[in-house]
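With this grant's support, we have paired protein sequences with backbone structure tokens. One protein thus recorded is set out beneath this paragraph:

_____
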Amino acid sequence: MGTVYASLDQRLRTFIDEQPVFFVATAPLSGDGHVNLSPKGRSGTLLVLDELTVAYLDFGGSHAETIAHLRENSRITLMWCAFTGPPKVLRVHGRGTPVFRDDPRFGELIGRFGDADGPGLRAIIIVEAERVSDSCGFAVPFMEYSEERDLHARYFGRKTDDEFAAYCEKKDTNVASIDGLPALPVPLPPRAETVDADMADHGLS
């Protein structure tokens, strides 16, 4: 039998920290629109900020469906499932906000992720939980975690920030969702700390 929780208590936070992958689901308001479901990895890129707030790093890719849906209606569900140990599926239903790189909140938030920060970062997604619940997960198979894939980090690590911005702008499915909803703002704004460093180099800070 599933349980609804008042908040993300320490036991649930520990469960979240132990899972190497989580899933993100969003959808447009239109009944003809496409529901999106994305797996997320990269160790350390998701944090529980407080008892009802989760944040994760949104890195570059071929699509930006989650961002487009959040800009339209903010609905989002995060899910974790146990592939080892006792069975459990945990869901956080809530409202999500993309914090883009020129947002005044970006600098403080990104500092909380430490070494998980890296090249190709488009935004930080903040999720305010409205419902926290679990279910049995009895049919979820046991799976063995091997290691992190580094292909994504290496691919974008070869690009300068300007090259990354150009990559995002030329991808139609970065600029808009597959249903035509506005997604990434382009031109992609530079990271706030990059702007500050450039100003300091020119004696403008």
